[in-house]
Automatic annotation (TrEMBL):
Organism listed in the record: Paralabilibaculum antarcticum
Highest rank taxon of the organism: Bacteria
Enzyme class: transferase
Pfam families cross-referenced by the UniProt entry: Citrate_synt
Descriptive protein name: citrate synthase (unknown stereospecificity)
Ranges annotated as spanning the membrane: none
């Protein structure tokens, strides 16, 4: 058995023991109450899911297993996937075995390129990514074995096979999309001597050769990997997989959710905001001028992109990690300088704006990520969500493998009509 498979197997036993204890302590214990506002309001604040890959704390941000962002941001994405799915970082030997396994599976079938090259020239890169994965659905090991008849307790093993096949092909697929959509269409071959993110950088073929870009990509792929279970893309992916639609269907569905402007697309809006400031006021803008500019934007009824969060109540530690990277690698970049100046003025303005109604005046991850990509030569905004997607697929895969391993049933909350609410609840 491979180390990752063994790690997941052991992790599932631990998780199942915990669940057994939880159920023994009180299967019917109430967790949260749901009010009418919440059933009409996107279920915000309703605690209704268990997700054991990661957790977002309002004050300390993203946790993966026992690790906070500070404690995992220096790792490789492969180590992060191992952590998400087994609860532990791999030993050096297990990591090498896992990377080797991914290399063996990296070849993207020719028909995927045929599908992608036949799309209209202006197809969005996220459509290409989602479609590229969906087009490989006939390769699903889970589907093949399910049709033969497998025991429920083994579902996760075939879901893992699908996950490894998808993850292994992602750098080639994402880079190929970039080259078809924004370049001359000539693909660069996968290099099995490179790691997962190193390969993505190599196959993108962005001609600046700066080592820091590879470091940035590694950090980017680590920081966007997962954000617990209730966000649009992770939840969508889990719902689809809970119907035993295989991981190709589930990953493609999750990516379709990520493609929305309220979710994965927000990072490109932040960069546009910063570029506009650069164009109108330059990176030499004074603090007073910047404050006036930000207030003008707010008074015109717009939000300050990159600030605020539905869960976080502090500066997103992922923002802090990107800021540190910028200080160390591109402190003279115009975009970085403006993003940093915004950080020094925006929180105080937001704290006092709208009579303190803005729940979190601090920056989220999107306030910095696009500025860094732009500085290192990746200037096509439309492509940024693809990178977010490459990273987030790790979370989709890990969440679905664990859910299958724990025998979680199909997800099916109950909905009601207005009439039902009026007749059954005292709200007339
Ligand atoms: N600029 C101006 N106003 C803001 C604001 C911001 N950055 N953040 C919140 N507000 C406003 C809201 O629009 C809302 O106003 P109304 O009641 O008039 O509609 C009020 O403050 C209260 O909102 P909230 O409870 O603080 O925030 P929500 O949980 O409703 O929304 C978010 C969270 C992220 C959508 C919001 O902060 C926002 O629009 N931020 C800017 C866009 C952005 O950065 N998106 C990326 C999010 C990254 C992620 O989710 O991972």
């Amino acid at each position: 058995m491979s180390s990752i498979k063994e790690g997941i197997h052991d992790h599932l036993i631990e998780l199942q023991e915990e669940i057994d204890c939880i159920f023994t302590a009180g299967r019917n214990t109430k967790v949260s109450e749901v009010n009418i506002g919440q059933i009409y309001g996107g279920m915000r604040g309703v605690v209704a899911l268990a997700c054991n890959t990661s957790y977002v704390d309002p004050y300390s941000g993203l946790h993966i297993g026992d690790y906070t962002t500070d404690n995992f941001s220096h790792k490789l994405p492969e180590e992060i996937f191992f952590l998400l799915s087994t609860g532990k970082f791999p030993e050096a030997e297990s990591l090498a075995e896992f990377q080797n396994d991914l290399n063996q599976r990296a070849q993207v079938p020719q028909y995927v390129w045929d599908v992608l090259r036949n799309l209209p020239r202006d197809t969005h890169p996220m459509t290409m990514l989602s479609l590229g994965i969906l087009s490989m659905e006939n390769e699903s090991v889970f589907k093949r074995e399910y049709q033969k008849g497998i025991e429920k307790r083994n579902y996760w093993k075939y879901t893992l096979e699908d996950a490894l096949n998808i993850l292994a092909k992602l750098p080639s697929l994402a880079a190929g999309i970039y080259r078809i959509r924004f370049g001359n269409g000539v693909l660069i071959a996968h290099d099995s001597k490179l790691d997962w993110s190193g390969n993505l950088v190599h196959m993108l073929g962005i001609p600046d050769g700066d080592k820091s870009f590879a470091d940035l990509m590694r950090l980017y792929l680590v920081l966007h990997c997962d954000h617990e279970g209730g966000n649009v893309s992770a939840f969508t992916s889990r719902v689809v997989n809970s119907a035993l639609s295989d991981l190709y269907y589930a990953v493609s569905a999750g990516l379709n959710g990520l493609a929305g402007p309220l979710h994965g697309l927000a990072n490109q809006e932040c960069l546009q905001f910063i570029l506009k400031i650069d164009e109108q006021l330059s990176d030499q803008v004074s603090e007073e001028e910047l404050k006036a500019y930000v207030l003008d934007v707010l008074d015109s009824g717009k939000v300050i992109p990159g600030y605020g969060h539905a869960v976080l109540r502090v500066t997103d530690p992922r923002f802090t990690a990107f800021m540190k990277f910028g200080e160390e690698n591109c402190s003279n970049s115009s975009c970085f300088k403006i993003a940093k100046k915004l950080f020094s003025v925006v929180p105080d303005i937001l704290k006092n704006y709208k009579e303190g109604k803005i729940a979190n005046p601090y920056p989220n991850v999107d306030a910095m990520s696009g500025s860094l990509l732009h500085h290192f030569g990746l200037k096509q905004f439309d492509y940024y969500t693809v990178l977010f997607g490459v990273s987030r697929v790790m979370g989709f895969c890990a969440q679905n493998i664990l859910a299958q391993g724990l025998g979680q049933p199909i997800i099916r909350p109950k909905s009601v009509t207005n009439k039902w609410v009026l007749e059954n609840l005292a709200v007339k």
